[in-house]
Amino acid sequence: MRGHIHKRVRICNNGRKSTLWYVVIDLPRGSDGKRRQRWHGGFETRKSAEAVRARLVNQILSGAYIEPSCLHLSEWLEDEWLPVHRTRVKRSTIRAYESAIRLHINPRIGGVEIGQLAPRTLNELYQTLLVKGRADGSGGLSPATVRGVHLILHKALQDAHDVGLIPSNPARKAKPPRPRAQRIELPYWISWEIRQFLQLCKGHRLEAAYRLLVVTGARRGEIAGLRWNDIDFDESRISINQSLLSTDGEIYLSSPKTYRGRSIDIDDDTLSILLRHRDRQTRERVAARNWVESGLVFTREDGSPIDPRTLSATFKWLIKKSDLRDVRLHSLRHSSASLSIQAGLPIPVVAQRLGHSSPQTTLEIYSHVVSTAGKDAAAKVAAAVLNGDALSLTR
């Protein structure tokens, strides 16, 4: 068994000629006695192809060679890879996978055998998507979106490698675009705006939900999915164990974003508002003709789960009646985090309350707030050390 180098010249879209080098490996004859060959490539230089040929021949001689699969990329993605991951990742993640595969991957390289995919193939895909990747043909995709396509391909091809379908993952050597570097400071309300908003909420049947969003920094779906047995009234604490989400008009329960539950302490005033909300729900249960027992804290008038989008729509309706800045509901989370940091709450505590995977994530998102808080802290420490003010130092 041996291999040889094959040269191919093709005409690119711009009319120029492009030369690619392929490694052709001779495999043992099949049961029908016919000659079998497998192609690897293409490589931009003969030298690169020669190096791969030598490596592949050594693998054949040592018995370590993996014959590239003839399975088309679209077949691998749709028939084998996606069905497995539908039971392993969140529904919203699967929707993103399916959309990228349907709109961007399969129409362009879905017909290529996964054993024939090369880094250059993927690089050409990324360049095409940057120039004319929009489904409506109006232009290209953003670098961040194309990089997202790359990450999906990287994972899918790594899984193909792990099960022995391909000898290596071509996406590892591909060059996806880098997202444009830009610092985004997330909008948030300051203290007086938060107080004015909470005043607007007084008496509303979702007052307790907005109060929790403000004081805990929890995500919309986490509050919508909160159950009564997740509230410890004795210890003044709530537990985030699930999230209520809405995808394509369907409401369903899922795990928290980082797959880990957490407990968040709450203040006495918030606890009192929750107790009043429980009394309100008890009255609604009595008045309802067909009460749906969901166990959720925030429901519709008949007890059925509330659509998380209702929290956003009602939020917009409330602030329209005021002179408050027009922000998204998610800004309540940023407000809670930013004001907590400015108040001097330690970053690890803020990270735990927000449900971030690590304090580093909190630092990266709220770096602009941390830097401001650091300056305030420096002034307070200087005042304490030099003037004996503000802090009582331990001798």
Any descriptors?
395 residues; alpha+beta; DNA polymerase, domain 1; hpI Integrase, Chain A; 3 domains; three-stranded antiparallel β-sheet; 8 strands; elongated; disordered C terminus
Q: Can you characterise this structure?
A:
With 395 residues, the protein is α+β, with helices and mostly antiparallel strands. The protein folds into three domains: 1-64, no CATH class; 66-182, Orthogonal Bundle (DNA polymerase, domain 1), CATH 1.10.150; 191-326, Intergrase catalytic core (hpI Integrase, Chain A, Orthogonal Bundle), CATH 1.10.443.10. The protein is 48% helix and 12% strand. The chain has 14 helices and eight strands. The strands form three sheets. A three-stranded antiparallel sheet has the order 1-2-3, with helices on one face. The protein has a three-stranded antiparallel sheet with strand order 4-5-8, with no helix packed on it. A hairpin with an 8-residue loop joins strand 2 (17-27) and strand 3. It is elongated. The termini are far apart. 26% of the residues are buried. The model is unreliable at 390-395 (pLDDT under 50).
What's the layout of helices and strands?
Layout (H helix, E strand, L loop, with lengths): L2 E9 L5 E11 L8 E8 L2 H17 L10 H13 L5 H19 L9 H14 L10 H20 L28 H11 L5 H10 L3 H5 L6 E2 L4 E4 L2 E5 L2 E5 L7 E4 L2 H20 L20 H13 L10 H12 L4 H8 L4 H7 L1 H21 L8
Antiparallel strand pairs: 1-2, 2-3, 4-5, 5-8, 6-7
Helix pairs in contact: 2-3, 4-5, 7-9, 7-11, 12-13
